[in-house]
């Protein structure tokens, strides 16, 4: 099963079957407890961007994965067992074969557009997109509950990435409640291209039974979001000093709110309009051309400008 990070021939790219693996943004993330098995209990307000990694799929004589894109070199080339795309493929194939559904060899091309270990669900989103894409390619059927259980085996964030909609996630991330009233937001994402290991952040977390988010029934979302937080941000800031800088830079461009997403080091700023977000991202790229800045629009109810 070849893994070619710098492939020039990409048969899956011409197949016409594509899946976006959108960036996942934790608008808020509260750590509210810890299970006996060590997993942390979370409450997270989640949305997804209109950009991310891109995957393409086609039937082939043998399985293959080709990886390209600006952040492809950051992946662990050759360590195939740890690649979530391949694990998703293999788990889904095993599941389908047990129900006598065909799952023939497939060529997959992953264009890695998102920073790695950045707190925006890159690997989890890739795994979820793989599940969606292969179900389409193989013309297979699987019960939703079984698919979500399979996704959870790949990681706590994969079920929410499989949904790809505005939602509240609780438990370890597997209990999902859609939030169709959450508006679409204009954001700027920023990352200093410093990878963050999630276990390191949780080990530095001083308090693991913080106040929950509680019930969400908002009409004025911006005031609500300002009352929430990311409990992983303080330990991440102590580990990666650039988080302070990048948050201040985004805020200095006129963001209504800045916060870190997930376990970092990506920060986001919410802007009053898409045009303002685009201008801010361009300014920030000019200030720090070696860092990652991207203007995005999130999924959600279209509501005009953020108040």
Task: Explain how this protein is built.
Residues 83-164 form the GHMP kinase N-terminal domain. Residues 216-285 form the GHMP kinase C-terminal domain. This is 4-diphosphocytidyl-2-C-methyl-D-erythritol kinase. With 307 residues, this protein is α+β, with helices and mostly antiparallel strands. It has 2 domains: 3-177, Ribosomal Protein S5, domain 2, CATH 3.30.230; 179-297, Alpha-Beta Plaits. The protein contains 9 helices and 11 strands. The strands form 2 sheets. Strands 1, 2, 3, 4, 5, 6 and 7 form a 7-stranded mixed β-sheet that branches. A 4-stranded antiparallel β-sheet has the order 9-10-8-11, sandwiched between helices. Strand 4 (64-68), helix 1 and strand 5 form a beta-alpha-beta unit. Helix 1 (84-98) runs parallel beside helix 2 (122-137) and helix 1 packs antiparallel against helix 3 (144-154). The longest helix has 16 residues, at 122-137. It is globular, with a radius of gyration of 19 Å.
């Amino acid at each position: 099963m070849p893994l070619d990070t710098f492939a020039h021939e990409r048969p899956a790219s011409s197949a016409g079957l594509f899946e976006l693996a959108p960036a996942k943004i934790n608008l808020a993330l509260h750590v509210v407890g810890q299970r006996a098995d060590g997993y942390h209990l979370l409450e997270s307000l989640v949305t997804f961007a209109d950009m991310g990694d891109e995957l393409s799929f086609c039937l082939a004589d043998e399985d293959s994965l080709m990886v390209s894109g600006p952040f492809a070199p950051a992946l662990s080339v050759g360590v195939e067992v740890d690649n979530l795309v391949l694990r998703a493929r293999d788990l889904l194939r095993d599941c389908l074969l047990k129900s006598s559904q065909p799952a023939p060899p497939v060529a997959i091309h992953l264009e890695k557009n998102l920073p790695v270990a950045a707190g925006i669900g890159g690997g989890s989103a890739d795994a979820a997109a793989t599940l969606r894409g292969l179900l389409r390619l193989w013309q297979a059927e699987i019960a939703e509950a079984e698919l979500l259980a399979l996704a959870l085996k790949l990681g706590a964030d994969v079920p929410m990435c499989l949904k790809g909609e505005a939602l509240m996630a609780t438990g370890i991330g597997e209990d999902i409640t859609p939030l169709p009233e959450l508006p679409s937001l204009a954001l700027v994402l920023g990352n200093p291209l410093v990878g963050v290991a999630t276990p390191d952040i949780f080990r530095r977390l001083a308090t693991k039974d913080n106040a929950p988010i509680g019930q969400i029934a908002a009409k004025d979302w911006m005031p609500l979001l300002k009352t929430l937080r990311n409990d992983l941000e303080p330990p991440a800031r102590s580990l990666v000093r650039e988080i302070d800088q990048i948050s201040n830079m985004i805020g200095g461009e006129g963001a209504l709110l800045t916060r870190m997403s997930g376990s970092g080091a990506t920060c986001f700023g919410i802007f009053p309009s898409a045009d303002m977000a685009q201008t801010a991202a361009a300014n920030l790229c000019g200030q720090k051309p070696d860092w990652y800045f991207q203007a995005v629009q999130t999924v959600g109810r279209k509501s005009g400008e953020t108040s």
